Please model this.
Amino acid sequence: MSDVRYPFTAIVGMADLRLGLLLNAVSPAVGGVLVRGEKGTAKSTMVRALAGLLPSIATVDGCRFACDPAAPDPQCPDGAHDGAHASARAARLVELPVGVSEDRIVGSLDLERALAEGVKAYEPGLLAQAHRGVLYIDEVNLLQDHVVDLLLDAAAMGRSYVEREGVSVRHAARFLLVGTMNPEEGELRPQLLDRFGLTVEIAATREPSERAEVVRRRLGYDADPAGFAARFAADERELAERITAARELLPEVELTDRALRQITAVCAAFEVDGLRADIVMARTAVALAAWAGRTEVLEEDVRKAAQLALPHRRRRNPFDAPGLDEEQLDRTLAEHAGPEEPEEPAAEDPRPEGPGDGGPGDDGPEPDGDGPGDGPDGGGGGAPEPAGPPAPTGTDAPAPGPEEAQQQPVPVQPPAPGRETAPVAAGEPYRTRLFKVDGTGRGAQGRRSPAETDGGHTIRARRPQGRLARLHLSATLQAAAPHQVARGRTSRALLLAKDDFREQVRQGRESNLVLFVVDASGSMAARQRMTAVKGAVLSLLMDAYQRRDKIGMITFRGAGAELALPPTSSVEVGAARLESLPTGGRTPLAAGLLRAHEVLRVERMRDPHRRPLLVVVTDGRATGAPDAVARSHRAAALLAAQGVTGVVLDCEAGPVRLGLARTLAARLGASAVTLDELRAEGVASLVRENRATPLRKAA
Model:
């Protein structure tokens, strides 16, 4: 691999990504940029190319924390640097691998000096190396949560706080934070998304001529990296000079009252949480003005700042795609683009100002309705439309009136065997009970089941099992202390033997593989019933998202079972597959359970430490063969024999219930939970019982 970076100016297209990175280069206070896009779109290439454009920095000679000689950090662990010599060097690009450990990020005790010399010394981590440079995290959505929290806290505060292994250190950690991710591999939590200043969505161009130019340039670079870079050297110098000029102009840019009103009005209209969005938009608008060579923020700067800073802050639940309503943005900007003059309360409207006041379409007071900006899309105004029954479509019967719908359900017969019905929408998701896998695992960190993890709290020490991973220093010293005289110790250095070493045992929570087996047969096809069932599964999917689980989905109907979603970290894909799930046909329950057994067997070989949680969504009926029920019970016993922890979501409805789902749960060695019992609200006793007694596996 060549050491010559691909030139930033040689990248074709992706204007928003280019602009987002350059704005952060001009003003690191913007807070970094998150790049979301499909694989193979040059995300990493562009980030690495940006580092070559950053101006050189002056550093104190011998300082491991890249202190600026003009304003050295008074808390620098390497000293006050009074009168120290300085030299210039290029800004660093520090890349963070997915499997990085916490001590590698923030630094730790220098064990070599501690054990050999008997002194306590601090070894800086990657945050110290990235100070005044670029910290690049590829596949940031695959990092463990506690690692991402460390990074984003340091990025927000500009300082790293290290309290570990008897070491207490503070040092500056200001850097340009850039993360890239492929949404297909899972999302970041909304709280973490909010900590990135800007976000950019990218996709490969579909224009053949542009794609041809991308391939042509890449082949040219691979054939002669140095020669290819030389072709763009002049453009690179020009862009680097523009970044430097914009940095120098930045303190002179004025954020006018009009621009500030527009910024706050836009954030209020889009109902973003907190005030971080307002601050990021203001900093971005100022950086845009400086990049354009202006000393005043204009409306076009505010608009572009909103497009970059707000889309990822608009998510209201984990399955919402980031986005921004451009028409609403334009209306809000136009509403607050009036001349700058002292604001006086209008005599005809004594209402106090609020985030939704003065929104688009606001024609007067609305004492009985929601104000503009209160709806799901943030727009509105005018009198609300009266709620009414949906219009009949296709073969649906005419909808009853509101009073009739409350008094009696619409009699909808399940379709005949073999007949497929159109997908129905899922009900509103809700908070569910917590289901855990029995025992203590060793899987990837998450938020579901108890496990020995790398990032949990230390509960004890033990002799290393294989390669020493996490040294328990105090336990190691205690094990070695009684033998120092016998070993002839004569200096401060500690004499250690292999048998003295102890490693930490940490306990936290792990993520699991939640495999859904969903009955999509005719017995489940009544619309009201399937809406409730889909709402329950969607709620469990949201729970899996929040607990950082992998999920998979098997559906069974008609003649067999289908792996609708192979195990993945992208819970959003699972929600989309659930939404489009058709129903109808016979109920091959045994086929669904056998398919689950096969999927779990394969996943156990791929990831032996990730324990599964099986969620079977069914009414317990089994049809399609004379011995269908017996076959389903044999398949359930096969899963139980493998020690699979399971939950059966009992979807049986009606005044007369056969209890087939509970019988199936007994065969699986699983818990049976009804749709009503699934909700966390109002079932505190059930939740306490579940937390006190984890799900039982078959004996």
